[in-house]
Amino acid sequence: MEKREVNKSIVIGTIGSDCHMIGAWVLQKAFKDAGFTVAFLGAVVPQQEFINAAIEIDADAILVSSMFGMGLLDCEGLRDKCIEAGIKDIILYVGGTVAAPLELEKNWPEVERRFTAMGFNRAFPNTCTADEAVQALKADLGID
Amino acid sequence: MSTYLLVDFGSTYTKVTAVDLEKEIILGRAQTPTTVGTDITIGLNDALTDLAASSGVDPEKVDGKYASSSAAGGLKMAAIGLVPELTLEAARRACLGAGAKVVCAYGFEIDEEIVREIESAACDIVLLCGGTDGGDKKVIIHNAGMLAASNIRCPILVAGNRVTTGRVRETLEQGGKQVYTTKNVLPNLETVEVEPAQALIRDIFIAHITKAKGLDKAAAFIGSPIVPTPKATLQAAALLANGAGDDPGIGSLVIVEVGGATTNIHSVADSSPATPQTVVRGLPELRIKRTVEGDLGIRYNAPTIYDLIGPDAFLSRLRAIVPEADGRECDARRHIDYLSRNVGHVPSTDVGLNVDIVLAEAAVSTAVRRHAGTLRQEFSVVGEIMVQHGKNLLSVENMIGTGGIFRYGLQPERILRSALFNPETPWSLKPQAPKAYIDRDYMLYGIGLLAEAFPAAALRIARKYLKAASL
């Protein structure tokens, strides 16, 4: 199989019935500043819209923000849908208050493991900075 | 008089029912062993002779005939998709709703070993799906290549990513396969569209499978296409629930059908979240849904059910109904094995009849649990929330029992009761308080056969003959 060329384009949004948008907004700005094309979908974004946008802009990655503690639930099945939609190798990140706050601190390794098991390449706790996210994606894409 | 003959070629028995559509009454019924191994019309003629003797209906002088069949293994299909929870699930639903038994199902790329499995499963149709429209192309094209190179002789129905259909057809035809193509069963990730595939499955069944299963002589006598039996029952379910003309029908329902080899569950109901706070996951549920449990039948699969219950629980359940069954422990296994070898056995003793009840209760309870959705708890910032997978049957208004045991068996209500919601397993979304009916005349398949041509009369006959029961 031919290797896909890096397009430096990503999709960012807040998933599910979550309307917290600031984190995703800060993130999209950081990625734009770093030279990425960003489809910023805002808040309350269904899984399907992330995938539709990723197909349209030929995205390298989908970055999912989740702030109200139900990230595990909202992200379930996203990788499966990507496979069906023909973008099985796309990079999936999730970040924010992705599980109930108490559990997040206490059980981070377990929370991270559950996201990895669901097919996410990386999960970031709410303490991660925008720049760390940019550096992580650059590393995963193998660019500067 | 306006007499119609309704025939079902079952795996064990050929049943005939005669109805008068003007008076809207059942004139009579008869059943004899199915003779698909030799000539299916032998058994049919026996049944018709019996019918003529008991009810005076002359088969030569009827106004019309309809038939369904599950003889010679019924309609056996293989389902191939991409992601098991997505296109493969949609493919399975398309098969089941068409009245087929899904004998094998595979997701992702199939390999040589899987191709061998499909070859030896002797399917009647292979349904090839994969990818949403405009979605993944590679897997369905790979799978088409594998099927093209195989020894599979049955027709292949393609209902995958629209973009690939031409290429998939070409690949399969180059391999000498008989190919049918239709719309994608999952055109996008939020829409399951099984009707076009099901219509084509019906056409293929009529065009090829009727003949291949030795049903062509019967079809010539009947004079109209033979449909798979589960499809007939599903049509009856839809007619009863949705109504016809001015008759609004009886509302949402579940039909429990216990057979010798399988247990079928049919539901016609809109699925809603179990509580307003419930989050629903998975593919959207279809209003008309059928599931079939190939491991749950009270004859061929009596040993499977016995093992599922466990010998101790089986005996204690049996003793709870017939205390005098004491001291017969050693015979239980032998009796169960006897049933699986003598699949036409109709019990006459107290113990025999009650063994059937215990088997049927377990089959129904398990089959409805597998048909119904589930609830599980998750924790979030806002407290606990409930997550629902599958179809919520909690508020279904009606439940109907059909199949041999509901005709000859003791305590049919008891069997139906095992389909109800159980407070000990509150996560299983079974019906809570439906009105119950027993198909004492074993006529539901016939109602389904009449549903297309005479919906209003068929519905009134069903209402008249379904026996209300209290659970």
Supply database-style keywords.
heterodimer; A: 144 residues; alpha/beta; Rossmann fold; five-stranded parallel beta sheet; 44% helix; globular; B: 471 residues; Nucleotidyltransferase, domain 5; 3 domains; six-stranded mixed beta sheet; five-stranded mixed beta sheet; 19 strands; 21% strand
Question: Describe it for me?
Answer:
The complex is a heterodimer of chains A (144) and B (471). Chain A is of the alpha/beta class and 144 residues long. Chain A is globular and about 40 Å long. The mean pLDDT of chain A is 91. Chain A starts with 8 loop residues before the first strand and ends with a helix. Chain A is 44% helix and 16% strand. In chain A, strands 2-1-3-4-5 form a five-stranded parallel β-sheet, with helices on both faces. Chain A is built from seven helices and five strands; from the N terminus they run βαβαβααβααβα. In chain A, α1 (22-33) packs across α7. Chain A has a single domain (9-133), classed as Rossmann fold. Chain B is an alpha/beta fold. Chain B folds into three domains: 3-71 and 213-225, ATPase, nucleotide binding domain (Nucleotidyltransferase, domain 5, 2-Layer Sandwich); 76-208, 3-Layer(aba) Sandwich (Rossmann fold); 239-469, no CATH class. Chain B is 39% helix and 21% strand. Chain B is built from 16 helices and 19 strands. In chain B, strands 14-12-11-17-18-19 form a six-stranded mixed β-sheet, with helices on both faces. A five-stranded mixed β-sheet of chain B has the order 3-2-1-4-10. Chain B has a five-stranded parallel β-sheet with strand order 6-5-7-8-9, sandwiched between helices. Chain B starts with a strand and ends with a strand. The mean pLDDT of chain B is 93. Chain A binds chain B through residues 47-48, 51, 55, 68-70, 72-73, 76-77, 80-81, 83-86, 88, 97, 100-101, 103, and chain B through 82-83, 85-87, 130-132, 134-138, 161, 186, 188-190, 279, 281-282, 378-382, 385, 387.
